[in-house]
Amino acid sequence: MNLFKNTLIATALVAAGLAGTASAATDTRNFQVKINITESCLFSTSASSDLDFGNKARLSANDVDSTSTLVVTCTNGTPYNIGLNAGTGSGATDTARKMTGPGGTVPYSLYKNTGRTQNWGDTGTNRVAGTGSGSAQTITVYGRVLSADTGVSAGTYTDTITATITY
């Protein structure tokens, strides 16, 4: 009986040893997952609007105000600034823009603020600064047709402004 017990124990030990060495082999590897988000800004022309001072019977001693919007989308955290050039009116400057029409020119100005005291131009502090949020941001352009002589002829007067965003 002792022999039978010893054989049984020996068989059990051999079986246990074989079970422990029958495990599967493994190997591991690491890999990176990444994306590079670059700074980016763009204007959304579909959401921007022209600056329209409307229909006036004549220019007088009163200024005529209007607004327009620029819509810009920049990568979150990206600093930007927007400049507005002098326009296409002959002899126009950032501070004295001119719409041209059949009777000459109509002077106007563009501003950064509601009170129309901060000129919006294309250099230095005359630009509008901001920081991107990752979503569309609406920037208001404040315009004013300056009081002018009443001798301007009837007709449509226009100018084209180029907005440039630097980021």
UniProtKB/TrEMBL annotation:
InterPro entries cross-referenced by the UniProt entry: Spore_coat_component (IPR053167), Spore_coat_U/FanG (IPR007893)
Domain Spore coat protein U/FanG: 28-164
Pfam families reported for this sequence: SCPU
Signal peptide: 1-24
Record key words, sorted: Signal
UniProt keyword Ribonucleoprotein present: no
Keyword Signal among record annotations: yes
Name the record gives this protein: Spore coat U domain-containing protein
Species name: Pseudoxanthomonas kaohsiungensis
Upper taxonomic lineage: Bacteria, Pseudomonadati, Pseudomonadota, Gammaproteobacteria, Lysobacterales
